[in-house]
């Protein structure tokens, strides 16, 4: 299980990054660095936090996730 203090620090850092990135005029956003062995609940929590703070009108791409069967 992931330490809750560390998790909170990670989420705070993520929100800071998302806040800075959304100030840029870009075509869309890629979310990466996940799917590295963390529990699925933690994985989806980070995805939810990321996407909740991204502009809805811009595309999002979740990088490096899935296996061949789920990508077809």
- Which radius of gyration do the C-alpha atoms yield? 13 Å
The low-confidence runs, each spanning 5 or more residues with pLDDT under 50, are: none
Helix % is 40-55%
The first-to-last residue Cα distance is 32 Å
Strand content: 5-15%
**If strands are numbered along the chain, what order do they take across the biggest sheet?**
1-2
> Which structural class best describes the helix and strand composition?
mainly alpha
User: Quick one: how many beta strands?
Assistant: 2
Globally, the shape reads flat
Query: What's the tally of helices?
Result: 3
Largest sheet: 2 strands, parallel
H/E topology pattern: HEHEH
Mean pLDDT over the full residue set: 80
GO cellular component, one term: cytosol
GO molecular function: tRNA-guanosine(34) queuine transglycosylase activity
Organism: Dreissena polymorpha (Zebra mussel)
Keywords: Zinc
Polypeptide structure, described:
A two-stranded parallel ribbon has the order 1-2. The chain is built from 3 helices and 2 strands. The protein is mostly helical. Helix content is 49%, strand content 8%. This is tRNA-guanine(15) transglycosylase-like domain-containing protein. Pfam families: TGT.
């Amino acid at each position: 299980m992931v330490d809750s203090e560390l998790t909170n620090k990670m989420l705070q850092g993520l929100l800071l990054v998302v806040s800075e990135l959304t100030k840029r005029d870009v075509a869309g956003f890629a979310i990466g660095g996940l799917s590295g062995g963390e529990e699925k609940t933690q994985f989806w929590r980070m995805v939810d936090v990321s996407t909740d703070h991204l502009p809805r009108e811009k595309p999002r791409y979740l990088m490096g996730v899935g296996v061949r069967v789920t990508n077809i």
